[in-house]
Amino acid sequence: MTDAGPAAALVAALAERGETVAVAESLTGGLVVAELVGVPGASAVVRGGVVAYATPVKATVLGVDAELLAARGAVDPEVARQMAAGVRIALAVDGVHATWGISTTGVAGPDPQDGKAVGTVFVGIADAAGAEAVELHLDGDRAAIRSAVVSELLTRLRSRLQSTE
Fold it and tell me: Which residues contact 94 (CB under 8 A, 6 or more apart)?
């Protein structure tokens, strides 16, 4: 964990805007929220994280459609969108949803999952206006893929904030 790089830039931008973020993770298993809370001052903007590693937890805790999960599996853009939207609600404080919800779902390896190749990842970003998902195709071993997902997601949310300034 570091106080430089994408996490620090994101925490600073969120703090400046008075906004918050909630994190839903599958393949990254807590790495995204750990990177964020490694930044001094993160407590002002990070609501927390949900590690929904088991597919059923995506439905029971984050509100992802169970029929969607049964039909398409967890490695799917709509699952990423619903995870990001759901975590904003799941980590509400005093009835106020997090400004942003971000999510990760995909295949870090060593084997394919749900018919998807290793390195196939979807990251989700949600706010009150809706949710989007971005498909990533990453190379490397399990650790390299998981690390790249963290960096990509934090950078993408920071870019999204910049585009709405």
Answer: none
